[in-house]
Amino acid sequence: MSSLSAYKPYTHGVHPKAGAISKNSELFLDNVVSLRRDVRGVAVGEVLRLLEIALSTTDETLRREAMAHAVELSRSFRVRIPRRLSLLICRKCMTPYRFDVSRVRVRRGRAGLTVTVTCGSCGAVRRIPLKP
Ligand SMILES: [Zn+2]
After folding, report:
1. How remote is the CA of residue 123 from the centroid of ligand 1, in Å?
2. What is the pLDDT of residues 58-91, one digit of tens each?
3. Which residues surround ligand 1, an ion (CB under 5 A)?
4. Distance 62 CA to ligand 1 centre (A)
5. How far, in Å, from the CA of 113 to the mean position of ligand 1?
6. How many whole angstroms separate alpha carbon 14 and alpha carbon 45?
7. CA of 58 to the centre of ligand 1 (A)
8. How far is the CA of 115 from the centre of ligand 1 (A)?
9. Where are the alpha helices (DSSP H) in the chain?
10. C-alpha Rg value of the chain to the nearest Å
11. pLDDT confidence band for 8 (50 / 70 / 90)
12. Which of 74, 25, 32 is nearest to 51 (CA)?
Protein backbone atom coordinates (compact mmCIF):
# COMPACT_ATOMS: atom_id res chain seq x y z
CA MET A 1 0.00 0.00 0.00
CA SER A 2 2.81 2.37 0.88
CA SER A 3 4.57 1.59 -2.40
CA LEU A 4 1.37 2.46 -4.26
CA SER A 5 1.06 5.84 -2.57
CA ALA A 6 4.74 6.53 -3.32
CA TYR A 7 4.06 6.16 -7.05
CA LYS A 8 3.74 9.55 -8.69
CA PRO A 9 2.45 9.56 -12.24
CA TYR A 10 3.76 12.17 -14.64
CA THR A 11 1.13 14.90 -14.50
CA HIS A 12 1.03 18.41 -15.84
CA GLY A 13 3.54 20.63 -14.16
CA VAL A 14 5.12 17.91 -11.99
CA HIS A 15 7.73 15.49 -13.27
CA PRO A 16 8.50 12.47 -11.00
CA LYS A 17 12.22 13.21 -11.19
CA ALA A 18 12.50 16.82 -12.29
CA GLY A 19 9.89 18.13 -9.84
CA ALA A 20 7.91 21.25 -10.72
CA ILE A 21 8.31 22.32 -14.34
CA SER A 22 7.08 25.34 -16.22
CA LYS A 23 4.76 25.25 -19.23
CA ASN A 24 7.57 26.33 -21.54
CA SER A 25 9.90 23.53 -20.51
CA GLU A 26 10.49 20.68 -22.96
CA LEU A 27 9.72 18.28 -20.09
CA PHE A 28 6.15 19.63 -19.74
CA LEU A 29 3.77 16.78 -20.66
CA ASP A 30 1.98 18.53 -23.56
CA ASN A 31 5.31 19.51 -25.09
CA VAL A 32 6.70 15.98 -24.77
CA VAL A 33 3.59 14.51 -26.42
CA SER A 34 3.57 16.98 -29.30
CA LEU A 35 7.31 16.52 -29.88
CA ARG A 36 6.82 12.76 -30.05
CA ARG A 37 3.96 13.25 -32.51
CA ASP A 38 6.14 15.47 -34.72
CA VAL A 39 8.98 12.94 -34.72
CA ARG A 40 6.58 10.13 -35.63
CA GLY A 41 5.21 12.19 -38.53
CA VAL A 42 8.74 12.61 -39.87
CA ALA A 43 9.32 8.86 -39.44
CA VAL A 44 6.19 8.04 -41.51
CA GLY A 45 7.48 10.14 -44.41
CA GLU A 46 10.96 8.68 -44.13
CA VAL A 47 9.70 5.06 -44.09
CA LEU A 48 7.63 5.67 -47.24
CA ARG A 49 10.57 7.38 -48.96
CA LEU A 50 12.93 4.48 -48.14
CA LEU A 51 10.36 1.93 -49.34
CA GLU A 52 10.01 3.83 -52.60
CA ILE A 53 13.80 3.78 -53.07
CA ALA A 54 14.02 0.07 -52.18
CA LEU A 55 11.26 -0.92 -54.59
CA SER A 56 12.35 1.22 -57.52
CA THR A 57 16.13 0.76 -57.69
CA THR A 58 17.96 -2.09 -59.37
CA ASP A 59 21.08 -1.70 -57.21
CA GLU A 60 21.04 -4.79 -54.98
CA THR A 61 22.98 -3.23 -52.07
CA LEU A 62 20.82 -0.10 -52.06
CA ARG A 63 17.65 -2.21 -52.11
CA ARG A 64 18.80 -4.23 -49.13
CA GLU A 65 20.04 -1.26 -47.08
CA ALA A 66 17.01 0.95 -47.78
CA MET A 67 14.61 -1.86 -46.91
CA ALA A 68 16.46 -2.76 -43.69
CA HIS A 69 16.44 0.89 -42.62
CA ALA A 70 12.74 1.28 -43.44
CA VAL A 71 11.82 -1.80 -41.40
CA GLU A 72 13.99 -0.66 -38.48
CA LEU A 73 12.41 2.81 -38.48
CA SER A 74 8.89 1.43 -38.78
CA ARG A 75 9.47 -0.80 -35.78
CA SER A 76 11.00 1.80 -33.49
CA PHE A 77 8.37 4.45 -34.31
CA ARG A 78 5.42 2.02 -34.67
CA VAL A 79 4.75 3.06 -38.23
CA ARG A 80 2.83 0.45 -40.19
CA ILE A 81 4.13 -0.45 -43.61
CA PRO A 82 1.08 -0.47 -45.95
CA ARG A 83 -0.13 -4.03 -46.67
CA ARG A 84 0.28 -3.78 -50.43
CA LEU A 85 3.94 -2.88 -49.88
CA SER A 86 4.57 -5.37 -47.06
CA LEU A 87 3.41 -8.17 -49.38
CA LEU A 88 6.41 -7.37 -51.58
CA ILE A 89 8.94 -7.91 -48.78
CA CYS A 90 10.39 -11.24 -47.68
CA ARG A 91 9.74 -11.68 -43.94
CA LYS A 92 12.93 -13.66 -43.41
CA CYS A 93 15.65 -11.74 -45.23
CA MET A 94 13.71 -8.42 -45.31
CA THR A 95 14.54 -7.70 -48.93
CA PRO A 96 11.98 -6.97 -51.65
CA TYR A 97 11.07 -10.10 -53.66
CA ARG A 98 12.79 -10.26 -57.00
CA PHE A 99 10.15 -11.78 -59.21
CA ASP A 100 12.66 -12.91 -61.83
CA VAL A 101 14.10 -15.42 -59.33
CA SER A 102 11.23 -15.90 -56.84
CA ARG A 103 8.47 -18.45 -57.41
CA VAL A 104 4.79 -17.57 -57.08
CA ARG A 105 2.16 -20.32 -57.13
CA VAL A 106 -1.58 -20.31 -56.51
CA ARG A 107 -3.09 -23.33 -54.72
CA ARG A 108 -6.69 -24.24 -54.26
CA GLY A 109 -7.37 -25.86 -50.90
CA ARG A 110 -10.29 -26.39 -48.57
CA ALA A 111 -9.83 -22.91 -47.10
CA GLY A 112 -9.92 -21.28 -50.54
CA LEU A 113 -7.07 -19.97 -52.62
CA THR A 114 -3.55 -19.62 -51.21
CA VAL A 115 -0.71 -17.80 -52.90
CA THR A 116 2.69 -19.32 -52.14
CA VAL A 117 5.75 -17.15 -52.65
CA THR A 118 9.23 -18.67 -52.46
CA CYS A 119 11.93 -16.02 -51.94
CA GLY A 120 14.61 -16.14 -54.61
CA SER A 121 17.35 -14.83 -52.31
CA CYS A 122 16.87 -16.91 -49.13
CA GLY A 123 14.38 -19.62 -50.08
CA ALA A 124 11.82 -18.77 -47.40
CA VAL A 125 8.27 -19.87 -48.25
CA ARG A 126 5.37 -17.55 -47.52
CA ARG A 127 1.76 -18.59 -47.79
CA ILE A 128 -0.80 -15.85 -48.23
CA PRO A 129 -4.42 -16.96 -47.88
CA LEU A 130 -6.84 -15.10 -50.15
CA LYS A 131 -10.29 -14.22 -48.92
CA PRO A 132 -12.96 -15.77 -51.13
ZN1 LIG B 1 14.05 -13.97 -48.39
Report:
1. 6
2. 888 999 899 989 999 999 888 888 888 889 889 8
3. 90, 92-93, 119, 121-122, 124
4. 16
5. 22
6. 33
7. 17
8. 16
9. 2-6, 29-56, 60-76, 83-86
10. 22
11. low
12. 74
